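fwd from M.: "can u put these together and see what the complex looks like"

so here's what she sent:
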Amino acid sequence: MMPPTRQNNGSPLLDVRDLRVAFRTPDGVLEAVRGISFSVDRGRVLGIVGESGSGKSVATQTMVGLTQGARVSGEAFFEGENLLAMPPEQLRAIRGRGIAMIFQNPLSSLHPFYRVGWQIVEMIQAHDAMTKRLARTRAIELLGLVGIPRPDRRVDDYPHQFSGGMLQRAMIAMALALNPRLLVADEPTTALDVTVQAQILRLLRRVQQEFGMAVILITHDLGVIAEVADEVVVMYAGRAMEAAPRRELFRAPSHPYTRGLLESIPRADGEGARLTPIRGQPPSAIAPPPGCPFHPRCAHAFERCRANVPPLIPVPGVARHLSACWLGEEGRP
Amino acid sequence: MTTTAAQATVRSRGPWELAFERLRRDRAAIAAAATLLAVGLVAAIAPAIATAVRHGPAQQFLDVGLSPSGIPLAPNTTFLLGTDSLGRDVLVRIAYGTRVSLLVGLLASALAVLIGTLVGIVAGWYGGFVDRVLSRTMDVFLALPFLVFALALVAVVGPSLTISVTVIAFFCWASVGRIVRAETLSIREHEYVQAARTLGASPARIMFVEILPNVAPSVIVYTTLLIPGAIVSEATLSFLGLSVVPPTPSWGNMLADAMAYYKVAWWFVFFPGAALVITTVAFNVLGDSVRDALDPRRDQAVPATDEEVS
Amino acid sequence: MTTSAVAPPARPGEPLVRLEHVVKDFPVKSGSLFAKSRERVHAVADVSLDVRRGDTLALVGESGCGKSTLARCLMRLHDLTGGRVLFDGHDISTSTQGELRPFRRRMQMVFQDPYGSLNPRRRVGSIIGDPFEIHGLRHGADRVKRVQELMELVGLNPEHYNRFPGDFSGGQRQRVGIARAIALRPDFIVCDEPVSALDVSIRAQILNLLDGLQDELGLTYLFISHDLSVVRHVSDRVAVMYLGKVVELAPVRDLFGHARHPYTRALLSAMPAPDPDRADTREEILLAGDPPSPLDPPAGCGFHPRCPRAQARCATEVPALAPCPGDAAEHLAACHFPVADGEAPAAAGSARQEAL
């Protein structure tokens, strides 16, 4: 578990401990998240990076109660209260107000039959006793804030009348409407063109600073992490493999998975040489290998890796850098 | 070389196998299937039943089969389900009627599905002029009133089993065609169809090898719901005397006879009606279960990783 | 089924694939039922390209630029509205599908979606064997053997011959698609975003596979991607497309080192690189607005509404794709005011920096 940094108010905004999420399927129990712990401080950006099957989306969605039919254990303290033990009405009150979420595909997150402005107003009024007129003014204000031109006109448009980038901005506007303390952005730019992605990331950073929000940014793209995150957690097969501040992670990655990822990514600034892939496939979530989930693909695996799951061990000599690898104890390769 | 050790633990199952397993787990489906099996059995052994109780289906027992005042007998030890207005054994007649219903139901449906699928796929694949012509044709068929045409046809040719089958198929194929056409239109855009085109596959090959297996689930579901419709249609036709010729029993014409006697002979109405209802409901329940089992959304076998498609 | 004939190769030195002024329109019905005027979407608006034997030409651009449509025109999955497509010197622009069959053995395609490009109801052995079946080659046990060889070649376990696509992961399915594409030893393969839908740790595997196959089988690739970093690794030459036209065409080193077109520069700068130093210090060229819709293209240079260097001339005159002053003949750009080395893109005249 990442030791929370002591900010002026002491405790982290969000403190997740040993979160486990499992689903029952006809083929067996699918353990999507296997004991992940992380924390986010006020006003900081935590990047969670992982590929499909890593459990990154399931973890955050479960945290706010959006997963159905799952077996959940662990704790998720938001401003001191455990989200996972809360009654549904209280949790619903927190969603939107304390914690806001934006997803990958804005077209499927917004109702296609209602005007965008109306949807924002509806959300505001669900949490705040505001008149419709005031709420609408606020909605227009927000749309302008996120860079949508002519917000007074666009507020009455339907989602399909927006382009992908504009719609994602509208989503961000909706998320900001109630001044949340935490914004969870789940792959917000994956479905967007790269020039639009750059705009949205710029917007997220600006908005985060202006509103002083904490942000959890979930992505599979290490480039996006390098742009936006303050701290990074790398997930694989439902577990955290490595946690570190941004620069540290890229400068001196410790876990073989992180290193493998960084070595296998094609770079626009690199030479056109052969890439070094990580061999093998991500494991099945139903029948995972024992011990460290990465060991079948790891060039440095030895007996202990096959037998025991390594916990997050601090990397010697570096502050706030943890790696779930037995090599840390045996000495780095 | 990428070995898939993880795959070994999750057994490889094709989409049909998966659907079948889902069906097997569905209790309603099992019950419905068992019922239909029983119905089929009755149809198959109808002559054996007749021999067992020693009553033929057209045999009139005017002396022992009717009361002194000429009213049909209630179920008793000799006539297990009672007799009809002419002293015939209701049980045996229902058994033989099952044959008619199943035969017409299955045959007419099969014919409708065959024609409808062919027309639907061709219309959906070619689009343009071919599609317009075929779609309008289907529209015409869907607009025709069933009974009026049946009556007219029978008035010209005379009632028979063949006519029943033809008429019912005649009116059902277009709805199959519409469904298949709609499915084809969407499947046509899938990348594996584009891939087949880049390989140089002929349209006939694409329609048969790529599209047909993927419209099959919808067709199968629709067929299981078409059959009870066909059975009821046949019952309607024979109720009006437009299907099999008396004394051949069918559930429909038994009900027609029974109408006048319902006050005094409830069994005469009840048992053919019950047979019709049970068979129809069983097919409908099975059809619903089949549709759930074939639901394409659930066809992703839990893969080694649940991939995201960005 | 007769084995289809194979056309004889043309002179060496000729490009394997040549596109000449290709235009592809799609009709869009306007609102009224009785309106005579029919709008047309210019998905591809005059593209001329060569793909040389043994090369990898990358086609890069964002959504709406027409790269996928161009590829499908090349493969004759669409009919051309205008222009010519020549394969090995033979004009296939107006050939019927029947006439194209011999060429189908020599030009193939790998698709983007590993889930959509394989028929879920067929076994992979049958899918990979399709090319043989369609062209009447190799029957029975011989075909099975050949398919299994192909499976090994792409890194699949030949014992999985009878499995369905649903049993495989995305990366493995993509290998199946590749095996299908190389089955008949084609000369030319169009790779349409072959790794975009795959996990990051799998991409390198597939890219290496494609690279290895190119060497082993002497393939020529047209590689379509929106991801410039991937393009950097695989291509020899790069064509950047915008709004149905090629705006820059250069050898890969030149494109990444000295891009001339402002759009290319914006694209390069927008790419998030996994390097915090670069992220913190690089120049950010942010374009205003979204990629335009081909339904309503601007007059003059298609890029001018978003271009930080645009001037009056750009709104009226369409720039030609030509070498810039001082550049080699290989490096072409379609811009009235190309960006010189060391120059900041917003320098020339009106500073139309996006305000965000």
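replying to her w this: Residues 261 and 268 of chain B are 8 Å apart (CA to CA).
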